[in-house]
Design a protein that fits this description.
- The protein contains 5 helices and 14 strands.
- The protein is of the alpha/beta class.
- It has a single domain, classed as Metallo-beta-lactamase, Chain A, CATH 3.60.15.10.
- Helix 3 packs antiparallel against helix 4.
- The relative contact order is 0.12.
- Bound molecules: zinc ion.
- Zinc ion (ZN) binds next to loops.
Amino acid sequence: MGHGQNYLNNGEVVHARFHTDQMRSECMKVQEIGKRGFLFTFFELDNCPTNVFVINGKDHLFICDTFLGPDSMEEMKSHVRSFSEEKPFVVFNSHSHWDHIWGNCAFPSSVIISHTLCRETIMKEAESELQQYEEYKMGNVKIVLPTLTFTQSVFFPDEDVTFFHTPGHTKDSASCLDHVDNTLFVGDNIEEPIPYLFSDALGLYVHTLKEYLRIDATTVIPGHGTIPDESIITENVDYVEAFMRNDTEKYEKGKYQFLHQMNLKIQRENKK
Ligand SMILES: [Zn+2]
């Protein structure tokens, strides 16, 4: 395995690892967001670029989500050292899904924050998800639970960072707002072109998306994919409301069709 570093035209840094044994190349993209944000995007999950957002706070480095395991987090940490002095990490899990929490074990002495339900769900589901999706793990994954939970929100006054409950994608979903840059990390609550509807609490989902609109963030960072246009929140609200009204003709074709059909299936199964 070799290591390389390349700079793209727009100043983004890409660390690329080349697996000569498998003729496979993987990379981690780093983008600067605002005055103190860094967005790490990983490409190892099939067709699904996954984001880890880092806030370089006054006395702490906040890590939003931990991707697929310790190897990816070590890579992220070594890049963090290039722009920050040594500071304690504060880790945040946006929700309990496996592709956002497997790297928790790379932060053995750090506080790991999540919503109370997120910790409970990790306790119930994570070991079986680890078996089911084992082929995706990056390094020696051990399931590590959040160490600090909240039900509404938790605020770091000296850092101007808030973590708050935003049920939607799942009931245990939470978000992070960096008040300094007005950057909002939303986990999987915002997706292009339409969101997955895993939870049956769709009214709460709409409430969360409208709360995002009220915050009017400068930059919205999703758990997967590129930074979306401002209009995406409204488009996601329109879809969830249409789904609740059973008025989904627009979504039965084109780019929406596959996801919409899947949502119908998930919601039917939820009702059983
Ligand atoms: Zn998810």
